[in-house]
Design brief:
The complex is a heterotetramer, with 2 copies of chain A and 2 copies of chain B. By secondary structure, chain A is of the alpha/beta class. In chain A, about 35% of the residues lie in helices and about 10% in strands. Chain A has 16 helices and 12 strands. In chain A, helix 4 packs antiparallel against helix 12, helix 6 packs parallel to helix 12 and helix 12 packs across helix 14. By secondary structure, chain B is of the alpha/beta class. Helix content of chain B is about 35%, strand content about 15%. Chain B contains 13 helices and 13 strands. In chain B, a hairpin with a 5-residue loop joins strand 8 and strand 9. Classes of the chains: A alpha/beta, B alpha/beta. At the A-D interface, helix 4 of A face helix 2 and helix 3 of D. The structure holds pyridoxal-5'-phosphate (2 copies).
């Protein structure tokens, strides 16, 4: 069952909701504003009653998969269970009702929470200070690179290149480019780790930084990380840590100790703030001492138990977001850290590694494992072994959906053909991993006997495989003016865009 | 599980980690029960002072508004809030369709052709729009016209620096100008001549970027009506609580011919083999995971759930509800302004300018007055001299449907000398 | 997909939740209590992690139909939309956190709410006072009958019979019996109303009360209600109103004006407190002046704006529930009444009547209408016309489930063979009523062409038609000791009761 | 719609109503917006004083306990809270299975064979149990042994009066006795000799009805272990907030041979034609909708959602969690008792009796002491002399896992003269 759009459900007979009256005798807009300042087109919002709205969104909700109902082994995304208490905490009126421009003495609790969260994150990743402003991982990457640029600039060095491994997430090169750097790709070696030889050859006095995640996107720990750090630092460049994979080793080791100078964290991965169907998240950035002067303003400072927002930071890169970041997500992450404690976080990472290796073992007979284990918190398999049957990673993904599992990340990282990137996380039980492995086994065996059936999947979902190519063609037609159907929005013209 | 893997202990799985890096554990307190956790977190919350809705007259980008209970009832559905970005379209139709509806609502509200799926906030929306103009025009200067939210301008500067975009405050657009950015109503709440600014930008071959208050668009001409190229803004007022400044949602919408330069996710219609309609992530070739360093933006995780809240809010309101809310704020703010300016020594800071529901007043001894209000449990206006030296003693007040007539009376009483 | 029981999902490997420690040096139970006071059998509760619990109940939730997602035209049940703001109100810490034995000056807000709700209910039904203690409709019936018994007793009258129409809900005779009365049934006439002749013949000096609902369970207004009231009162008996059908005429007329002496209301029907899958509800009882002395204690009294709980009620029937009733439901109902106002409640009833008559019209060609219209807020149809096809009301009910509609009430009231009792309520749109009517039409036409297919429904739900007869047989076997499987609970013996 | 029906106005549908009865409308204020509604309701809530969990030492049948956030996350799912009683089993498996799990959990906790689906509260559960005994034994007297919750006894009396059941306080059971009802721990928190009472009841051919505290059953022998025939109780402590006394849930469980006399709903296992397991309402022939005046009870709507909360709570706790919670309350209450009895003039009211986590103390000038605590923000113990003249000056105090060690210190400090 698909669901009509709210626009299609709209009925002119619906009364508007009851709302307060003005109660005062102020003028109406049309009484005082010149005509040409006023809206002339009628406002085409849908008109639904509250019961209709609730049913509409209830039905939409039921069309989703979510970590609350499904195993969601999306590699690189750390889809772990989101404790409900986090939501209770963020909804406390003392947080949710707080205006960001209140006087400092009326926001001490909020600042204290930010300060404590900063201290906790420093402890987890091994850095000096953390800014909580960035709204997501990519935002954090860019913030860090701006700081790195400012650092080199302050030393009168003109460093224009940022090195990025070929296995890196797309946000890394994009963030580097947005920060004004040239991106230089570093190749992975046959063992799935960065090639030191290639790194050597790319490092130069132009190098501002190397961006790395560890374990890398193949789920493998960069064994030679200490050598890498030395090489990078030796050229005067800095080392940046993409913290998307931090869930692999909390309490086991720390990026700061490995030599990373700047670190972003995804609170919406490692620290269980929910993903919200694509955000909001939070991407704090931790830095070593040499980068502290460049942190975005304001920072939170604590003196004798009194907390202040410090705006006087002359070398700061400025502001990367309005106000103080995604505060509601900071509350959730802090709540999680309090509940887990140091012991709980360490246990979480150990369980994540255990689960990933266990699942890897279960499916290694069915899918190709391009690299040797052990893996850390995730692993990348390949559907390349099914090539002859015509079955691709995408087919496996869609077949999993029919079995009530969300699909792993596919076709990433780019260095593995037909990549299937699996991150089970520590909050899944052995039973779940077993049944997922059984599903993979069934699908792979069907790839050999009945590949056509896999191309037809999913068949048990509200829609079958959607034709993105045709959709793109229709969008082009709209953008080029050969069609009136905007495709990217509802319009009466497109008659429900159906 | 260890047995299946064929190792004796977790340590055997961590062999790739150099021993010198291994920790004994974290320097953090031990975990707490949920009860103790909530006790600690609640204690922090209790150290904040939250002013009642009706006695909050401070805006400056974050406003108290009536939030229908339906909004949280939808966004608190785990199927929505615990899903990931909808990579597998067939198993994510709920999120995808909700975003598609959000895009349609924003396009409708702003009068633009296409909206994206969301950005982080109003500030980064301004910066992303400037980036679009920079790429589109090949010019590297943007003009900020008038009183644009100072924090948005700071973020714009920080963004611009990376790409070598110069941010100029005021002045006429010329052939180096990629875009003119203005806010309607501006940061002080005053109306600007959006048509004239847009015209001037276009005359110079620059784009016009309008940063708008979404609720005001039920009254005011939307950017699409006066020909702006990109409309951006902060969506907090659309069903999101202040929450100390976030998370909220930045919206961005543009003309058709700029769509390929839009940052972030876009959802479009697609069909399956049986012709059933569904929704997919579209035009992904703009984005970082495909284009990497050549992407229009680095944004990946955006603010979907906040966009969902905005969609529920706008659907709840409908055209007449939104108009009602905008009208009530307008009338109350004007009534309040009339009373404030009769206070001894108080005067409208820009008496010739029009406003919607926020306005600047010149207040004698502003800091003391605001402190006095705070003591009486009223969150008075915002002292904007903090950002603008020339506005010493200027305080902006805002009214919405939450500030009932008696609340306005209470404010006036509290201000009596 | 069915879902295993929590007991079946239990895993011994699951750690217990983190909970506070004692923190003090008090003794442990085993240190001070004698051995035979202590539990000796291990406590066989399931062991699941929080994520597993949340998934389990999410999946269970998805197996339900509810007014939030489905049209729920259950006759007599008034399944109208439950505004979400009611839930917000009841959850306010100022209500949810209140201990019932706090001092009076610390509970003024709660008492004021109860007092205002009482006044509002008095206005809606036209009575003198209302007790908010009863927890549900049946509880209210019994409470009212106890008051009626006390009333007669106080006048030294020995009245032992309560008259109940044959169309009455089962709770009416049950409540009468529980209150110590003999139940005498009064027949309905051919027009679906109570037969005045039969009533006449049953009324006697033994009659304590007549219990009536109006509109009656056939959805028909008892046109001769004023005559009925006169007849009943003439014999010295009282008239009791079963308020389950109050949604038919708020603001249109009032039971008090009709001559009813006692009235129960179902806040979970008329006043939108949610049904909770079978409660909790609230069944306040309103009474005319002559019954006021007998109200349960305490009542809420208001003097000069100060509210008190009055326990000094010498003629009171006593207490019918601990504390003050289902206070959380009272908050919800009061919130609804505030939001609707007098105008909104009147409109609601008018819309309810309109919707019922509209839907009745749409389906009158498909199903038999045993009584002439117009109806009030609901109507009773009959599947008797399909008798020859072998299709029964139950088959229609099950077929509707397959079309995502909950089924109407079937086989009630007992006076209509193959009864199908439909109550659409005012919160449903015309579109919904149209599509429900279309579903009925399709099913009825299929009854003629392919009746077998209807016996097989539902087929699209997690389970097919469940065999209650076989289940009853197995329960009997357990109760008689010939089987170990308790059927009414999980037991390890029954191996998951499967 | 009127046109389809074939009438001109709503009035044409109301023709059966005698004109003399027709109203012009209701004597109630006009409706309000959701915002104004919440403002009014919140204002009422604000007129109540809510004591912090940790500083609440009052019980008497309603207790502060840690409620896992998971409970509300489940019960606030609209699929659960907006469903009706599960008449159509196939479309109600969520509710039915949840109730079946609840029944199983209660049976497990009490050590009885079968639990019903829920009753209104502890008081009506006692009354319903007495009714079962009356029907089962054909005798019409019940004995209330010891300090049973006074409000439960009041409800029992009111119920009993209808059926002509006499309620006797104390005394030995004899051949007129249908049942002996006792509370374990009793209303004062003290342990009674449940085995002896049960034995005496059985010796007289009467049933033994145990009214128990569900959390205490993690420590204490459950009714099934000492042979009680019916176990009842109040389930508020299983995940439900105090809420000024309701809604909560009454539980009732019994021996196999009494099952046909159980009041209310019962859910059992059934199968479909394909052998798939499902759940249905069972043994309906006991109930009012089938048996009418011959039903075991009149109950129809019961307290399903509260039973669901209890099921989630018990599942969250598991066997070790529940034990931990019970132990913590036990230890803290004993530690508190030790400190209270050292206060000048204070003494244990029943020094020879054992208790779990609530206990009676004799307090000089009790009302003044409790008022003083209230002024300090502490909800002190419950003055039970209100119900029992012989217990003048006796106050019961309770401790649970919410009253941390510092809270106990604060209480003791506040009590210093
Ligand atoms: C390895 C890696 N780096 C960076 C990111 C970007 O994080 P965000 O989506 O929060 O911007 C992701 C998230 O998808 C990632 O997996
Ligand atoms: C006509 C009628 N009377 C009485 C009742 C009993 O109400 P409750 O279920 O609240 O006890 C009902 C509810 O089903 C009913 O429909």
């Amino acid at each position: 069952m698909t669901e009509p759009l709210s626009f299609e459900l709209s009925r002119p007979a619906v009364d508007p909701p009851r709302l307060p009256d003005a109660e005062v005798s102020g003028p109406a807009p049309a009484d005082v504003l010149p005509h040409d300042v006023l809206r002339s087109h009628p406002l085409g919002l849908p008109r639904l009653s509250e019961p209709e709205i609730m049913r509409h969104y209830s039905r939409l909700a039921s069309l989703n998969y979510s970590i609350s109902e499904n195993f969601y082994p999306l590699g690189s995304c750390t889809m772990k269970y989101n404790p409900v208490v986090n939501e209770t905490a963020a909804a406390l009126p003392g947080f949710a009702g707080l205006h960001p421009y209140q006087d400092e003495d009326s926001i001490q609790g909020a600042l204290e929470l930010m300060w404590r969260l900063e201290r906790a994150l420093c402890a987890v990743v091994g850095v000096e200070r953390v800014t909580l402003q960035p709204a997501a991982g990519a935002h954090g990457e860019w913030t860090a690179l701006r700081m790195i640029a400012a650092f080199h600039h302050s030393r009168n060095e003109n460093r224009t290149e940022v090195l990025v491994p070929d296995s890196a997430h797309g946000t890394n090169p994009a963030s580097a480019a947005l920060s004004g750097f040239q991106v230089v790709e570093v190749r992975s070696g046959p063992d799935g780790r960065i090639s030191l030889a290639d790194l050597e050859s790319k490092l130069s006095p132009r190098t501002a930084a190397l961006m790395l995640t560890n374990p890398n996107t193949l789920g493998l720990f960069e064994r030679e990380i200490l050598d890498i750090a030395e090489m990078v630092h030796a050229t005067g460049a800095l080392l940046y840590y993409d913290g998307a994979n931090l869930n692999a080793f909390m309490g086991i080791c720390r990026p700061g100790d490995m030599g990373f100078d700047a670190v972003h964290m995804n609170l919406h991965k490692t620290f269980t703030t929910p993903h919200g169907g694509g955000g909001p998240g939070a991407g704090p950035v931790g830095v070593k001492a040499e980068l502290v002067p460049f942190l975005p303003a304001p920072t939170v400072e604590r003196t004798n138990g009194h907390l202040t927002l410090d705006y006087k930071r002359p070398q700061s890169i400025g502001r990367v977001r309005s106000f103080y970041g995604n505060f509601g997500m900071l509350v959730r992450a802090y709540t999680y850290i309090l509940a887990m404690g140091g012991d709980g976080l360490s246990q979480a990472s150990q369980d994540a590694v255990l689960g990933a290796n266990y699942l890897r073992k279960l499916v290694e007979g069915d899918l190709e494992m391009p690299h040797e284990g052990p893996c850390m918190h995730e692993f990348v398999a390949s559907a390349h072994n099914l090539h002859d049957s015509g079955v691709r990673a995408l087919d496996i993904a869609k077949a999993l959906l029919d079995k009530h599992f969300y699909a792993p990340t596919v076709y990433f990282p780019l260095v593995v053909p037909e990549a299937i990137m699996v991150e089970p996380t520590e909050t899944e039980s052995k039973d779940t991993l077993d049944s997922f492995a059984a599903a993979i086994k069934e699908i792979v065996s069907r790839a050999k006997t009945d590949p056509a059936s896999l191309h037809a999947e999913p068949t048990r979902l509200p829609v079958g495989r959607l034709d993105e190519v045709a959709a793109a063609r229709r969008i082009n037609a709209y953008l080029q003016g050969t069609s009136d159907d905007p495709v990217l929005r509802w319009s009466p013209a497109s008659d429900g865009a159906s | 599980m260890l047995e299946t893997i064929g190792v004796d202990s977790i340590n055997d799985l961590l062999v790739d980690i150099p021993p010198s890096l291994r920790l004994e554990g974290l320097q953090l307190p031990a975990g707490l029960s949920e009860f103790e956790t909530m006790a600690q977190v609640s204690a922090l919350a209790a150290r904040n002072k939250v002013y009642p809705d009706r006695l909050t007259f401070r805006g400056g980008g974050i406003y108290r508004r009536f939030i229908p209970a339906a909004v949280a009832a939808v966004t608190s559905k785990p199927e929505f809030y615990t899903a990931y970005t909808p990579y597998q379209a067939e198993a994510s139709q709920g999120t995808l369709q909700a975003i598609f509806e959000y895009q349609s609502l924003i396009a409708e509200l702003t009068g633009m052709d296409v909206s994206n799926a969301s950005l982080y906030d109003g500030a980064t929306a301004v910066a992303e729009a400037a980036m679009m103009a920079y790429v589109h025009t090949g010019r590297n200067e943007v003009i900020v016209s008038g009183y644009v939210h100072p924090e948005y301008v700071q973020v714009l500067r920080a963004f611009g620096e990376g790409r070598g975009i110069k941010v100029r405050k005021g002045g006429e657009p010329n052939k180096k100008t990629a875009a003119v950015i203005f806010q309607q109503p501006d940061f002080l709440g005053l109306l600007v001549d959006a048509r004239a600014i847009t015209q001037a930008a276009h005359d110079a071959g620059a784009l016009a970027i309008a940063c708008v208050d979404p609720i005001s668009l039920a009254i005011l001409a939307p950017p699409g009506e006066y020909g702006a190229d990109i409309a951006v803004g902060e969506g907090q007022q659309l069903g999101l609580s202040p929450s100390f400044g976030g998370p909220h949602v930045g919206f961005i919408a543009c003309r058709k011919d700029l769509v390929r330069k839009l940052p972030g996710r876009l959802v479009g219609v697609a069909h399956d083999a049986q012709g059933r309609r569904g929704f997919v992530l579209a035009l992904a070739a703009r984005e970082q995971h495909i284009r990497r360093e050549k992407a229009t933006s680095n944004i990946c995780t955006n603010h979907s759930l906040c966009a969902l809240a905005a969609a529920v809010y706008l659907t709840y309101m409908g055209p007449y509800g939104l108009k009602q809310v905008a009208d009530v704020g307008f009338r109350r703010a004007h009534a309040l302004a009339d009373r404030l300016k009769t206070l001894p020594g108080w005067e409208m800071a820009f008496p010739d300018r029009q406003f919607v529901n926020e306005f600047p007043v010149r207040v004698p001894k502003a800091p003391a007055v605001l402190r006095k209000l705070a003591r009486k449990g009223i969150l008075g206006g915002l002292d904007v001299s903090r950002w603008f030296r020339e506005l010493k003693g200027v305080v902006t007040f805002t009214c919405t449907e939450v500030n009932d007539a008696r609340a306005i009376d209470e404010l006036i009483e509290a201000l009596q000398p």
